[in-house]
Amino acid sequence: MKLYGIPNCNTVKKARDWLEQHAVAYEFHDFKKLGLDNATAQSWLQQQPWEKLVNRSGMTWRNLTEAEKNAVVDATSAQALMQEKTSVIKRPIIVNNDKIIALGFNEADYAQLFAKE
User: Fold this and answer.
1) Non-local CB neighbours of 69 within 8 Å, separated by 6+ positions
2) Tens of pLDDT along 49-72?
3) What is the pLDDT of residue 115?
4) Which pLDDT score, from 0 to 100, does residue 117 have?
């Protein structure tokens, strides 16, 4: 299982803390250091609509010019933005076996998703 995000994001910190407190093993993928490869971006955009993957309430989006915002109209244009400015991606994203199992952090969702039987 892999958690994608950036280390100084508060939501990512909450997710990582929750996973560690509940002994859920994961690998951390730091967007800032490792970026986002083409195949991963395409896979995500096949699983989730671009509107969910692009965080339009975050600072990165708000700091884009109107022209840059207006240029994001479909999965292709969203992918280009996501790869150029990885901090515009909604975080964290948890992937298991190439499938997105969690987008963002919600404690109740994590508790259900990672319930130990």
Assistant:
1) 61
2) 999 999 999 999 999 999 999 999
3) 86
4) 47
CB 92 within 8 A of CB 53: no
Active-site annotation, residues: 9
Calpha distance 23→37 (Å, rounded): 28
Q: What does DSSP say about strands 93-96 and 2-5: parallel, antiparallel, or unpaired?
A: antiparallel
Residue 25 C-beta-side C-alpha neighbours within 13 Å: 0
* DSSP assignments along 36-54, one per residue: --HHHHHHHHHHS-HHHHB
- Which tokens in the block code for residue 35? 């970026």
Query: Which residues on neighbouring strands pair with residue 93, listed in sequence order?
Result: 4, 103
Query: What is the rounded distance in angstroms from the CA atom of residue 56 to the CA atom of residue 37?
Result: 21
Note whether 82 and 70 are within 8 A (CB). no
The model's pLDDT over 33-51, given as tens digits with 9 standing for 90+, comes to 999 999 999 999 999 999 9
Q: ∠107-49-102 over CA atoms, to 5°?
A: 20
